[in-house]
Amino acid sequence: MEKFYQEVERELNEHILPFWMKLKDKQNGGFYGEVDVDLTLNKQADKGGIATARFLWTFSAAYRITHNSLYLEYADHLYDFLINKLYDYDNLGLYWSVDYQGNPKDTRKHVYVQSFGIYALSEYYRVTKNEAALNLAMELFRLIEEKGFSKATNAYMEEFDKKWTPVPNEMLSENNVLADITMNTHIHVLEAYTNLYKAWPNQYLKERLVSLLDVHYKYIYNHETSYLDVFFDNKWDSILDIQSFGHDIEASWLINAAMDVIGVKNEDYSKMITDIAYNILNNALQDDGSLMNERVNGKVDTTRIWWVQAETIVGFYNAFEKTKDRKFLEAVKGLWNYIKENIVDKRPNSEWYWSVDEFGNPSTKNIGDPWKASYHNSRFCLELIERVKNE
Fold first, then answer.
1. Residue 345 and residue 339 in contact, taking contact as beta carbons nearer than 8 Å
2. Contact 164, 119 (CB under 8 A)
3. What is the pLDDT of residues 79-98, one digit of tens each?
4. How far is CA 287 from CA 305, 310, 325, 345, in A?
5. Pairwise CA distance, residues 243 & 357, whole Å
6. Domain-by-domain residue ranges, the chain?
7. Can you tell me the distance from the alpha carbon of 370 to that of 390, in angstroms, rounded to the nearest whole number?
8. Comparing C-alpha atoms, which of 238, 275, 271, 141 is closest to residue 197?
């Protein structure tokens, strides 16, 4: 494990983070919004609320774990942009996006974006003790609970306009469905609330986390297939036959983390976590060490996507820690070898490809944009560094 640890640490500090640090927009704030597959920087691309929050989380967490003060400088820069440009002080909440100068662009509000705001701000508070950051994270929590939670369905809603009037969920639906409820939003609300609890161990927040764990077990987890259902109507009925392999394994370790943070012991939940991990190990892992993307209506998408590989390493390592089954550890090593050979872009001044096909050919999708930021692969590195250190 020592060699693996050293390689992961080097990938984080010498490859991933330096790439994103070069995107710092010193004139307009935040990070530049797009780098295409040819590594052409678009300085006038929009800047996303999700990406900015993910960058803020990344550099805050990187400082917490590595103690490199340079990372804190970038976190400060990103925090300023988030609170001064992406937050709507009139109507509350984070915008979906702003233009390159920081003017509101897509002013819709989405619970998914607010969740990443909480995730980032609570992490930033953990390393700075900036009370304003914690207060804003708490405000976003209360906003989600007041505006974004439906007591009637016991579900977090999805999309709203600028003034928090519900609108169809265009931004987190796909495959020709419009979902009232999504697994994706729920796992990231869980993730955000878990991190907020580390900074603010509030009883009501704990109650919401307990409820979220129950929702994942009762409504999102499919007990017959050991997959998570993805898209739902407002009665929690699944509306598409889809299995998202990366989201499943990501959810497994996020659920485990939530249980650990609030001290929940539940054999049913623990079995769910390991059953998901074994299911993905047995049904989505390929002979070359990689993980496929998803299956829709029985048709498998074999694309190897960057974030799926990263989250699977964390999920399998988490499963190894729980079960001590070395199959998971061997899968982690195989995934890392696959990432090094195929997903890591070896061109100078690049990062990871968005994806490659089953033959290892890179896609033409952007290297950086509102959906591809530093969060997934940096987090895989940071999680592994922290977990191996604590063994």
1. no
2. no
3. 999 999 999 999 999 999 99
4. 16, 17, 19, 22
5. 19
6. 2-389
7. 33
8. 141
Q: What is the pLDDT of residue 253?
A: 98
**258 HSE (CA, 13 A, CB side):** 31
| Cβ atoms within 10 Å, residue 381 | 28
Q: How far are the Cα atoms of 220, 241, 259, 322 from residue 291, in angstroms, in the given order? A: 22, 19, 26, 21
Nearest by Cα to 188 from 50, 351, 92, 308: 50
Cα within 13 Å of Cα(82), Cβ side: 31
CA–CA distance, 268 with 175 (Å, rounded to integer): 32
**pLDDT band at residue 391 under the 50/70/90 scheme:** confident
**3-state DSSP assignment of residue 305:** strand
**210 and 217 in contact (C-beta within 8 Å)?**
no
Class of the domain covering 2-389? mainly alpha
Q: Are 88 and 106 in contact (CB under 8 A)?
A: no
Question: Is pTM, for the whole model, over 0.85?
Answer: yes
Mean pLDDT of the 276-286 span = 98
